[in-house]
Amino acid sequence: MLGITNVQQLLDDAVTHDVPYMAHMIYFLTLTKKVELNSPASIVKNIHLQPDEYAQFLQMYQSDVLQMRNIKLFAVRVNIREFAFYFAKNPAEVQVEHQKIYGNLPKKMSNAYNQMIDRSFYFPESKQYKSFRDLLAETVEFPKYVCTLEASI
Q1: What are phi and psi of 124, to 5 degrees?
Q2: Which of 47, 71, 81, 126 is the most exposed place for a label (fewest CB within 10 A)?
């Protein structure tokens, strides 16, 4: 938290660096008047929510009321060793794209955003490493098939 002095700066940092849990927590804390945006940033780590408050916060976070991740990264198992990756808003969009490409509906799909968004890959044609985050920033139409990768065992 170097250089971050108040809750507003902490919130801005959470949004800028794609940390929806922290952003939603600060939003919840301000809504419930537990902090103000000009409060010292250090106050956030000392606040403990009651179980019912935490349940309210979790519902807000899981429904993504701040709309921080409209586009998600989904992984679909293609076979025992490969996964296809898609950028999409929801699983229904992934199903349509997957069926276009592979001719069948996905048997299993998971949201791979947290695990894979910063995973980098080398692209020989451009001689660059790019992460899924970089690819997402370059993508303008969704849903989008991204690639198929072999599972590391």
Answers
A1: -60, -35
A2: 126
Rounded to an integer, what is the distance from CA 87 to the centroid of its chain? Answer: 11
pLDDT tens column, 104-151 = 999 889 999 988 999 998 988 889 999 999 999 899 999 999 999 988
pLDDT(10) > 70 = yes
1 pLDDT higher than 60: no
112-116 long-range contacts (CB < 8 A, ≥24 apart) are 112/73, 112/74, 112/75, 112/85, 113/69, 113/72, 113/73, 116/73, 116/75, 116/85
DSSP annotation of 103: S
d(CA 49, CA 29) in angstroms, rounded, equals 9
Question: Cα-atom radius of gyration of the chain, to the nearest Å?
Answer: 19
Name residue, tokens 């919840």. Answer: 28
CA proximity to 23, closest of 2, 37, 33: 37
Label residue 29 exposed, middle or buried (CB < 10 Å: 0-12, 13-18, 19+). buried
Contact 34, 2 (CB under 8 A): no
Question: What is the three-class DSSP state of 37?
Answer: coil
Q: pLDDT by residue (tens digit) across 31-45?
A: 999 999 999 999 999
